[in-house]
Amino acid sequence: MNSIQTQIAENLKNIRKLRGYSYDQLAQLTGVSKGMLSQIEKGESSPTVNTLWKIANGLQVSFSSLVEEKEPTVTVVRLHEKTAVTENDEQLQVYPYFPFDSSKKFEVYFLELMPGCVHESERHHGSVEEYILVCDGEATISIQDVKYVLKKGDSMRFQASQSHTYANLTDKKTSFYLLMYYS
Questions:
Q1: Rounded to an integer, what distance in angstroms lies between the CA atom of residue 34 and that of residue 173?
Q2: What is the mean pLDDT of each run of 10 residues along the chain (183 residues)?
Q3: What is the C-alpha to C-alpha distance for residues 6 and 10, in angstroms, rounded to an integer?
Q4: In angstroms, what CA-CA distances link 117 with 55, 160, 168?
């Protein structure tokens, strides 16, 4: 069985089981015989494009949801394998961990602020929330004229539509995770 045939088989089986359909019900919805649906799910038949469209239309899913590879169920991100985006002579290091995905509406970064680093962030347009979770050190987050001091284990959430600053006013490196949520 080729990889696309395997992918179609897995995707169809997952969608059918998730919705609790029998082969009879699926056949009624799609106009594809239950024998053919069973063969496709078992990887014994390679469906035509027309058959896939019938299945997609009957299930009211996109064509690509039947043929695309699923994301791995586990993704491991290792800091030493990432390349930082830097600023202020490497006083600020930003490691992109999980890039923006429109279906999830968020992205995750790991930031390191060297001693004395002050980074002014532009306000974000739209409804963007930032979530900060401090791993090490002490971060001073200023939102407009109000300062919040966060230490290891502390976290905060704020609307990022206003100007804000990240600062490390200590003599030790500070690190934190930043999740940006786009509602």
A1: 62
A2: 83 92 94 94 89 90 83 86 89 92 87 96 88 98 95 97 95 97 91
A3: 6
A4: 56, 20, 5
How far is Cα 103 from Cα 168, in angstroms, rounded to an integer? 34
| Backbone torsions φ then ψ of 61, nearest 5 degrees | -125, 165
DSSP assignment of 148-179: EEEETT-EEEEETTS-EEEE--SSS-EEEEEE
Find the largest Cα–Cα distance for the chain.
70
- 169-183 residues labelled b (16+ CB within 10 A) or e (exposed): eeeeebbbbbbbeee
What is the spatial distance between Cα 73 and Cα 67, in angstroms, rounded to a whole number? 17
Return left, alpha or beta for 167; rule: phi > 0 is left, psi -120 to 50 is alpha, else beta: beta
pLDDT at 31: 95
pLDDT the model gives residue 160: 94
Q: What is d(CA 106, CA 179) in angstroms, rounded to the nearest whole number?
A: 7
Structure tokens at 113: 């602020």
Q: CA distances (Å), 70 to each of 38, 78, 167, 174, in order? A: 21, 22, 39, 36
CB neighbour class for 168 (10 Å; exposed up to 12, middle 13-18, buried from 19): buried
Q: Give me the amino acid identity at 65.
A: S
